Amino acid sequence: MSCICQDEGRSEMSQTSDTMELREEDIRKHYDAATAMVQGFDHTPRIGAAKDAPVAEKSSGIGTRRRFRTTTPGLVTWSTARSEGVQLLARIEGAGTDNLGGDGLTSPTQATVLHGLRRAVAIALAVAEQYGMRTGLADLKRANLEGSLAAGKRTEFSELLTAEALVTMYVFANATAFLMSSHAGEDTVEIGEVEEVLTDNATLALHGVLWELDQDIGLFADTEPKLVATVLAYAEALMAKAAARATTAGRLEPFVAASWKVEEDGLTIRGFTPARAAKSTTLTISFKKPNEVVGNHIAKYQSMKLAKMVMAYDFERKLNPFAELGGFIFTFMGDGAPGTGKTTLIQMMAGLISEYCQVAGYPFRYQNLSTDNIDSYQGKSGQNAKAFINNVIDPSVIGFGTIDDIDQLAGKRGDRQSSAGQLEITAVLMESFAGANTVVRGNCTFGMFSNYPENVDDALRQRAGARFLVDGPQTRDDYIDILYLLMGKNHDIPVGDHEVFSAQEIKKAVAASFEGHSKPHEPGLMNVFDRVSATIGELDTIAKIGTYLKGIQEADPRFTGRAIKNITDAVKVRAMDFELPDEWMERPDLFMAKDYDTKLAMIEDLRKPITVEMVIQEINRFADSEFRYADKSDEVAIDGLVRDFERSEEANRRYLESKG
User: For 457, how many CA atoms within 13 A lie in the half-sphere containing its CB?
Assistant: First the structure.
């Protein structure tokens, strides 16, 4: 089934109790000032240099710099840059630039950008005004105008002005990025670092950033798609710069601790946290139904469970009951030989979540991190990976992120074949999946897939909380079912003595698959299991199971505390080994639309007790995968060395023959 779906969803599902409304009249009263800034003002740049297209030198040795820096003592710090007229309106309308509307009329895209910038400036001024009232800056400004500002208040006044400038710049950039995000296309622009960041006061700060934005539009926006891309790139860069400067500035607590909701735009301003427009991506993907996935019983079963689990997310509490109870899979690794069905599994899971979201009216965002995100520009690969993570973990959407062929995408540390871009992606994924700042809300999940997981960095691979062995069809019934499925309907060949898809009955197949892990599969782990069992007997207590874990660690030093955490998380998932009723996904009022506490109670009622068998099976499942990866990795390395020695020996033989 091929499906193209787009849900507008909600930018914020509800307004939290500590969020204040930024009233529309408080914003619109700044429209005149915002319009004047967009139409034109004079600004003398202090830090940034003009970014006009470079002019060829007139003769050798004569540069094209536009500034002169005096060497006269006492005047060395005086800027001799001339005041420049900034006319964003004219710049955006493309005066003299055919590509940006040389027909004399403002295009819809240009008008959208102009209105968006004016709106963002007005919102920034409104928030700055709120900040001034909350901190007493407004009173200090009046006293300063009247000439009655006390000497003891001057330091406080200066610090508050600096804070107000940072607030204004950040809110302007945040609002601009939010308002323009839905108009972004495929074009991207590299604008470099933002320079003209002035913190004297809010008005001068806005003049500085609008002057630099005007420069960037003139340099990069030679087409309408690039106009939007340039504005977005500048807004993102300005947010990063202002947030970085804010880490060393004082008196920002009143802004950081508060939040404002702009109801008309669906924008919520929460300190120095970027707002994201909670809209679904337009998803074009060939979805698969669960019965079209042959074999892969455990992987299919857990994918189906996870698709329902993520739908328990509560947008008001911004938390999933499964995440609180300890049964939510935030990251998982799917590995198997080529052609065993990893892509089909992705299509099935994305299709299920998409359908559930359509029923509930939730925004769904699917994104895949691919080799296209590896960039030769230093730092860009890491930025691409971070943008991928941020888009999926956005707490105002249901997210599903996949990293297909992760062994090609993320570099293995210490491997000379790994590029700088691949290592950047590895660092971002490791920090995002289990870093100090990682917060698992339960609104999204990430799947890493690979044909060669032994080539994935050990530390990154161990950040996969669950392992899905994608081994494809295994039994005679599986092969009959997949042949029947792929043959289609355009034939008259009888099925024969076989009940189609009966072997794919999920509960029966999964029960058999889990029981199969009561004993290890990999030879190395089987030796450990047999040795420990022969010494201490049946593994039926925590102490005996812990002894087994220590035995595994002695056989493979990479089996660390993180592995134990992944195993216990998997055991908790098994305790949640129940099927959320299909009708809960079909009728939102039965489950998805209920409040958080009710959903939590409903899930707790279904939870099963943890058994020794569950623990042993999950230890063997996880350890089998690690031993399998390690054995493959070692064999690949040994084969490579053997080939090198054989080549060296053959080269030596030929050399001696040529001499003799």
Answer: 22
8 Å CB contact between 271 and 257: yes
Say what the pLDDT of residue 139 is. 92
Contacts of 259 (CB under 8 A, 6+ apart): 16, 18, 19, 20, 268, 269, 270, 271
Give the residue extent of every domain in the chain. 19-46+83-270, 281-504, 517-659
What's the half-sphere exposure (Cβ side, CA atoms, 13 Å) at 191? 30
Please report how many Cα atoms fall inside a 13 Å half-sphere around the Cα of residue 53, on the Cβ side: 7
The CA distance from 179 to 232, in Å, is 10
The closest alpha carbon to 487, from 286, 294, 287, belongs to 294
Superfamily of domain 281-504: P-loop containing nucleotide triphosphate hydrolases (3.40.50.300)
Question: Edge-to-edge strand order for the sheet containing 466-469?
Answer: 364-368, 398-403, 444-450, 331-335, 466-469
**Choice between 504 and 189, residue whose per-residue pLDDT is larger:** 189
DSSP of 33-96: HHHHHHH-EEE--SS----PPPPPPSSTT----------STT-TT---PPPEEE-HHHHHHTTT
Measured in residues, the chain has a length of 660
CB contact at 8 A, 357 and 398: yes
- Percent of the chain beyond pLDDT 70? 83
Identify the sign of the CA torsion 32, 38, 42, 46.
positive
CB atoms under 10 Å from CB of 634, counted, come to 11
Euclidean distance between CA atoms 525 and 630, whole angstroms: 11
Q: What's the CA gap between 559 and 458, in Å, rounded?
A: 10
Alpha-carbon distance of 546 to 552, in angstroms, equals: 10
Over residues 159-200, the pLDDT tens digits come to 999 999 999 999 999 999 999 887 877 677 888 889 999 999
**Distance (Å, rounded) from C-alpha 129 to C-alpha 148?**
21
Contacts of 617 (CB under 8 A, 6+ apart): 514, 515, 517, 518, 574
140 alpha carbon, distance to own chain's centre? 42
pLDDT over 60 (residue 581): yes
Q: Using DSSP bridges, classify how beta strands 2-5 and 84-86 pair: parallel, antiparallel or unpaired.
A: unpaired
Rounded mean pLDDT, 467-477: 78
Helix and strand totals (H; E) in the chain: 24, 12
CA separation for the pair 357, 136 (Å, rounded): 46
Relative orientation angle of helices 154-180 and 108-135, to the nearest 10 degrees = 150
Tokens of 584: 């809960």
Three-state SS for 223? coil
Cβ burial of 213 (10 Å; 0-12, 13-18, 19+) is buried
| pLDDT grade for 52, boundaries at 50, 70 and 90 | low
CB 470 within 8 A of CB 335: yes
pTM: 0.56
- CA atoms of 157 and 510, how far apart (whole Å): 68
Q: What are the angstrom distances between the C-alpha of 312 and each of 281, 345, 593, 594?
A: 21, 21, 9, 9
